[in-house]
Amino acid sequence: DGAMDGVQRKKAVLSVAFRYLDTYRELLQEEGERNNSFPKVTPVVIATVLQVKTLPCNLQELSLVHLCDEEKETRKKQVRPLFRHFRRIDACLQPREAFRGSDEIFCRVYTPDHSYVTIRSRLSCRVGEILALVREKLQYSEDQPVQPGNLILVAVTSAGEKAVFRPSDEAVFTTLGVNTHLFACEPSELDSLLPLPEEIHWSPGDSKLHDMSAEEVANQLVAFDWELFSCVHEVEFMCYVFHGEQARWRPLNLELVLQRCSEVQHWVATEILQCQSLPKRIQLLRKFIKISALCKQQQDLLSFLAVVLGLDNPAVNRLRLTWEGLPGKFKKQFQQFESIADPSRNHKSYRDLITSLRPPLIPFTPLLLKDLTFLHESCKTFHGELVNFEKMVSRLFTSKKLILSMDTETSPSHLQTKAYVRQLQVIDNQNLLFEMSCKLEPKDT
Q1: Cβ within 8 Å of residue 147, ≥6 positions away
Q2: Among 50, 174, 291, 344, which is most buried by a count of CB atoms within 10 Å?
Q3: How many CB atoms lie within 10 A of CB 253?
Q4: CA 337 – CA 235 distance, rounded (Å)
Q5: Dist. CA 172–CA 165, nearest whole Å
Q6: What 3-state DSSP class applies to 148?
């Protein structure tokens, strides 16, 4: 009987393993093509599904299920702009689909004089391949009479900070900040690189938000967050936790969710600090608090906390006259929201909130990754020849248990709000935001 139980258990494990492979075959295929071995993360997922503590370590010896040649040939390649690099209305209005490393995208790469070339590249390609494409484009460019020499690829932020990529680095497109752009230059030109003019200068003006309802903006924030979050496979969380930035296969969709969180925070600060009228600024403050409440109500904790953290930005928080003009009802509500964002006692208020919710929900992804990383680093992966699976949490797999139904309204105002939310224009330079704040309300006011 014991032997039979062992056989049945092995059959159950194999059944789940192959069902898992069938579900994630396209994701795993990319890794398998580079390294023909079963991903180390797979036993963790299998064990989580089975809700068992240990499984034999040699499960990693299982072969990867490959797509047949016919499937490879018939798979359609879609060339699409990465949503943050190209602000095209038509692209923004399309439902979001999961990115894979083999997907091809269009992206701009700038030169020191701020001219640019548009390249078509795989998301996962190496920096050396990107530079080869850029060099080829520059050779045929009328604006570049001199043949390009030894090029390097550099990420330049709106604050002027520079990061030089190594030729072997991969999938750099999704690692860029909100207003960070790729530059190709010769090493001697590195110090001369400057942010794009539109990233340095700003002009005051009324926000488009004044003409939009808080309900509609919140609905569009939630809808877009769901599209982004539903594109993230559980494998990407595991890959991030187990390998982090050293991963050979980057968690592309997960990085886009993290970027969106940062983008929403800076959007809140940007809109308020560009508003010169004190009464209108107070109105914006009220609207953002209402938007955060509606996101919380719809269990989108990503945008909920991103808006709250945006209002807590030091450049916004110091606007004494603006906050004093806020009605007491809104002040009290925002204080409650701040308490949920409070990191004290290991984010107890947030954890109490998320425990009280039922799926579907969008968790505050940065904190989820922090928890998963802590569990991974604080617990041993192996106990002798057995794999420890208690370290993984089940909430990761239940957050997306149900899918929200998206509306299909096509009225002009609806589409305008949808396009606005999906192509937020933000200032992410904290020094510039603080400068804007001091011009609005000097210290002695």
Answers
A1: 139
A2: 291
A3: 20
A4: 32
A5: 8
A6: coil
pLDDT of residue 8: 74
Instruction: Compute the distance between CA of residue 325 and CA of residue 201 in angstroms, rounded to an integer.
Output: 29
Look-up of token digits 């990465």: 82
How far apart are the C-alpha atoms of 420 and 220, rounded to whole Å? Answer: 9
Are 173 and 105 spatial neighbours (Cβ–Cβ below 8 Å)?
A: yes
Q: What tokens were used for 260?
A: 């969106």
User: Can you spell out the DSSP letters for 38-97?
Assistant: --TTHHHHHHHHHT-S--BGGGGGSPPPPPPHHHHHHSPP-EEE-TTT---HHHHTSPP-
Number of CB atoms found within 10 A of residue 412's CB = 7
Q: How far apart are CA 178 and CA 87, in angstroms?
A: 12
Domains and CATH numbers, the chain: 6-64 (no CATH), 89-192 (3.10.20.90), 208-440 (1.10.840.10)
CA distance 251 to 369: 12
Residue 248: partners with Cβ closer than 8 Å, 6 or more residues away: 31, 34, 35, 170
Residues 140-171 as b/e (b if ≥16 CB within 10 A, e otherwise) read eeeeeeeebeebbbbbbbbbeeeeebeeebbb
Contact between residue 301 and residue 257 where contact means Cβ atoms under 8 Å apart: no
Q: What 8-state DSSP symbol labels residue 183? A: E
Distance separating alpha carbons of residues 330 and 326, to the nearest angstrom: 7
C-beta separation of 99 from 227 below 8 A: no
Query: Which residues, in sequence order, are bridge partners of residue 104?
Result: 79, 122
Q: In which residue ranges of the chain is pLDDT below 70?
A: 1-6, 9-78, 80-91, 141-148, 243-249, 376-408, 444-445
Find, among 57, 54, 56, the residue nearest to 390 by Cα. Answer: 54
3-state secondary structure at position 131: helix
How many whole angstroms separate alpha carbon 26 and alpha carbon 235?
A: 12
Structure tokens at 16: 């789940």
Q: What is the enclosing helix (H) or strand (E) of 104? A: strand 104-110
Determine the angle formed by the axes of helices 278-297 and 252-274, rounding to 10 degrees: 150
Tokens of 327: 């009605």
